[in-house]
Amino acid sequence: MALGTLVLAAAASPSEAFAHGDKVPVSRLGSAWDASPLVLGLAALALVLFAQAFVRLRRRGRADHAPWSRALLFGSAVALATLALVSPLDPIGEEYLLSGHMLQHVLIADLAPALALLALRGPLTFFLLPPPALRFLAGLGPLRAGVRFLVRPWVALAAWGGVMLGWHLPAAYEATLHNRAVHDLEHGLFVLVGTLAWIQLIDPARHRRLRTAGRIGFALALLLIGHPIIDALFFDGTPAYPTYAGQDERLLGLTPLADQRLAAAVMFSEQLLTLGTCVAILLWPYLRERRARPLALRRRPA
Predict the structure, then answer these.
(1) CB 3.0–4.6 Å: which of 100, 113, 233, 245 could bond 239 by disulfide?
(2) Residue 46: CB atoms within 10 Å
(3) Residues 100-137 pLDDT 10s
(4) What is the pTM of this model?
(5) Which of 139, 161, 128, 91 is nearest to 7 (CA)?
(6) What is the chain written as a DSSP string?
């Protein structure tokens, strides 16, 4: 699972990024696909690792732990992360629309990790690495200690909050738009903390660090921590990021403030969809039990 996290994090940092200054004119956006060898290579590696884990489990007669639905989930996760980085969404977000950049971020830092961890839950998590690689990594004491520390719920929550709030500050966000190394660091950290957060919610290795109530509280805490970003983008009457405000070509005719509010709506909608669905799934057994209890009482003989 640690390697899977690193693969997704590395995939979030393509070898070539579009820069500001109209490097990709509006007339060429539709064909602005960047087949980065690094991104495609890491996507292929992720698929190969999952495929060997999938096949090994099924050969052991445990198709119940490796159904085809898991392959579909993992393939969707890799496809979303890859398309977000190699499709025209990348230059749109880099040069023209804050809302496009926000969509790219929620895809690579939230939705893709969530789908990947859903696919890997259970024994697939432990089969993701071939035995020689697993033995090698298990022998690295500092690495194991670092992973154990990062997957603690309070550490994951603090890291998610710090990274998300910090990178959306205007000075930090502007730095990512104009400095290649800073931009790569931002994407890598987004994927890392997003994966750490979803590990708490999905618990793919079944470590039971949080009970059901704790996982629901964790999801609600993520919503609360992200809310200042959404509020600032939606309700602020001035553009937060000068680069987007100064763009001379307004894609889709969106004004800087309309684009900024759309970015807030993208983040809010995606969080509500993913975290709201997670909370509903966690609550469902409790709600089903509550609904069944009065029925059982009515059927009890007098």
Answers:
(1) 245
(2) 24
(3) 999 999 999 999 999 999 999 999 999 999 988 888 88
(4) 0.84
(5) 128
(6) -HHHHHHHHHHTS-SS---TTTSS-GGGGGG-----HHHHHHHHHHHHHHHHHHHHHHHTT-GGGS-HHHHHHHHHHHHHHHHHHHSTHHHIIIII-HHHHHHHHHIIIIIHHHHHHHHHTTTHHHHSS-HHHHHHHHT-HHHHHHHHHHTSHHHHHHHHHHHHHHHTSHHHHHHHHH-HHHHHHHHHHHHHHHHHHHHHHH-TT---SS-HHHHHHHHHHHHHHHHHHHHHHHH-SS-S-HHHHT-SS-GGG--HHHHHHHHHHHHHHHHHHHHHHHHHHHHHHHHHHHHHHHHHHHHS--
Q: Are the C-beta atoms of 39 and 106 separated by less than 8 Å?
A: no
Which one, of 273, 149, 147, 158, lies nearest residue 222 by Cα? 158
**CB burial readout 17-45, b (16+ within 10 A) else e:** bbbeeeebeeeeeeebebebeebbebbeb
* Tokens found for residue 300: 């009890």
